[in-house]
Amino acid sequence: MTATRGFGIDIGGSGIKGALVDLEKGALIGDRLRIDTPQPSTPEAVAEVVEQVVRHFDWNGPVGITLPAVVKKGVAHTAANIDRRWIDTDAQSLFAKQLGHSTDDIAVLNDADAAGMAEIRFGDPAGRTGVTTLLTFGTGIGSALFQDGKLVPNTELGHVEVNGHDAEKKAAASAKDNEGLSYPEWAKRVNRYLRVLENLIWPDLFIVGGGVSKKSEKWVPLLKIRTPVAVASLQNNAGIVGAAAAAAEGIEH
Q1: Backbone φ, ψ for residue 81 (5° rounding)
Q2: Of the candidates 31, 162, 168, 196, which lies 20 to 30 Å from 142 by C-alpha distance?
Q3: Which residues, at least 6 apart from 198, have a Cβ–Cβ distance to it below 8 Å?
Q4: With b meaning 16 or more CB within 10 Å and e meaning fewer, what string describes 194-203?
Q5: Distances (CA, A) of 218 to 179, 197, 212, 213, 221
Q6: Whose CA is closest to 10, among 105, 123, 94, 108?
Q7: Would the pTM of this model clear 0.90, i.e. be above it?
Q8: 163-192 pLDDT, tens digit each
Q9: Is 56 exposed, middle or buried (0-12, 13-18, 19+ CB in 10 A)?
Q10: Cα–Cα distances in Å, from 133 out to 81, 101, 127?
């Protein structure tokens, strides 16, 4: 029997968000709970907050959890905007132990991959054919790459070099805020980044997400690239939805 409800948690550098998810609609059930990411964001401290979020909803089923990291077979291999002690941590086992679950009930995956999975399944149907790239603009730039709807996990396209810099240092939403850039000023940087990217992977569609997608009308129309650009329909809830789906279906990377 296919599960109709799931639970997802999205771990970020500033907040840890969790919610029940309707797996048929790709939507949250009720409100999500957000708790500030502990500082320092060590594996143990974050795991305690994850347990707090799960307990709040009295959820006992499979749990999907995103990390801002490259994740292979449940192990974190990088750490973006979280404590570096995450590197080489078996996150799947850590969360399973903290929650009193078996590892089979815990799915841990890259945050942008989770968001991309949700968008491919529940968002613009155009993303399900050809080469689609989801980019989340936030503290950094997360990426998820799909070929005919199939995920190529753990791409790190936010770290492509553009004009001698790591792309996300100049084109992430945090750069706009930190440098006090207007939307047109920031859009020029995003445009430059997307041009470099489209010449590397020749996608058929870019999907742009992250918190800044809520104000897409202020910058997406300013982009001058050959690749069509769609705005993420699930916006900041995509990671939670994708994580819940991954856990319910036993997806492993």
Answers
A1: 65, 20
A2: 31
A3: 206, 225, 226, 227
A4: bbebeeeeeb
A5: 17, 22, 10, 9, 7
A6: 108
A7: yes
A8: 999 999 999 999 999 999 999 999 999 999
A9: exposed
A10: 22, 33, 8
